Amino acid sequence: MIEQRLQLPNGQSIQYLLDLRARRTIGLKITANGLVVHAPKRISATQLQQVLLEKSGWIQQKLALREANQVAPMQWQDGEPLLFMGQDIVLTLQHHATNKAVTLQGNQLLVRSPQINQPAFVARKVLQWYAQQALPDFTRRVELIAAQMGEKVSAVGLSNARSRWGSCNSRKQIRLNWRLIQAPPHVIQYVVCHEMAHLKEMNHSARFYAVQASLFPRYVQAEKDLKALSPILHRMA
Fold first, then answer.
1. 73 belongs to a structural domain
2. Helix, strand, or coil here: 225?
3. Are 50 and 91 contained in the same domain?
4. pLDDT tens digits for 142-163?
5. Is residue 11 part of a domain?
6. What percent of the residues of the chain are helix, what percent strand, and what percent coil, each to the nearest 5?
7. Last residue of a domain, one of 68, 95, 111
């Protein structure tokens, strides 16, 4: 990709990445790194600039929205705010010569260790704890819905994907993103139901959404809630 800059009539400029491909149309995408422009290899600089200027209002709106949704990166220090099952909790670090336990006590996620001054160690222990809570919770939800549907699931596992909340394959294996355990229960249930609906329809057709609606009627609102929460849930690497 080539770094480029679009000069706007008002004097402002927009930096973007240009990806020239064997294609006929120009595609615009807002990513974590900003604007990415996919364009035909033979397009002229003048033609490309004209299209981008025509779309500059949309581009600025989407970049502003992305900026508004930015959240501070995780610091892995005492007092760091966390989420668990939709509830606000606080990371609490205590030095202990031998104990390396992670426990939830009230609204405190307590990490005891002689290594609490090492952010990488704290991060690893906390992420392990979240995964340990996620798998049994997700498995229970899958099993209950499978019984309701009269279906059998061959395996339930955790995913660490950055762009997908879950998956279901033809072997009836369900994988769910461990970060979901931070979300409110209705959001977790929505994602589980979405993937379980794929046991009946391995697509996103009208039939699929009919199955999803039968399992989780409020899926439209839950999908919006998940989208709004996504930047916060992804604070954890």
1. no
2. helix
3. no
4. 999 999 999 999 999 999 998 8
5. yes
6. 40, 25, 30
7. 68
- Amino acid occupying residue 154: S
Whole-number pLDDT of residue 231: 86
Measure the N-to-C terminal CA separation of the chain; round to a whole number of Å: 25
User: Domain limits at 91?
Assistant: 81-233
Q: What is the pLDDT of residues 94-124, one digit of tens each?
A: 998 887 789 999 999 999 999 999 999 999 9
CA count, 13 A, side-chain hemisphere, 67 = 7
Task: Tell me how far apart the alpha carbons of residues 230 and 32 are, in angstroms, rounded to a whole number.
Answer: 12
- Rounded to whole angstroms, what are the CA distances from 236 to 19, 22, 120, 150? 29, 37, 12, 35
Distance CA 234, CA 74 (A): 10
By the 8 A CB rule, do 234 and 198 touch?
Answer: no
Burial of 183 (0-12, 13-18, 19+ CB in 10 A): buried
Name residue 105's beta-bridge partners. Answer: 108
20 dihedral zone (left: phi>0; alpha: psi -120 to 50; beta): beta
Model-level pTM? 0.74
User: Are the C-beta atoms of residues 180 and 167 closer than 8 Å to each other?
Assistant: no
Tokens of 27: 């595609």
Query: Is 74 part of a structural domain of the chain?
Result: no
**Please, are residues 167 and 175 in contact by the beta-carbon 8 Å criterion?**
yes
Distance between CA atoms of residues 21 and 27, nearest Å? 11
Task: Give buried/exposed letters for 87-124 (b at 16+ CB in 10 A, else e).
Answer: eebebbbeeeeeeeebeeeeeebebbbebbeeeebbee
Q: Where are the beta strands (DSSP E) in the chain?
A: 2-7, 13-21, 27-31, 34-40, 81-84, 87-95, 102-105, 108-113, 155-159, 166-168, 173-177
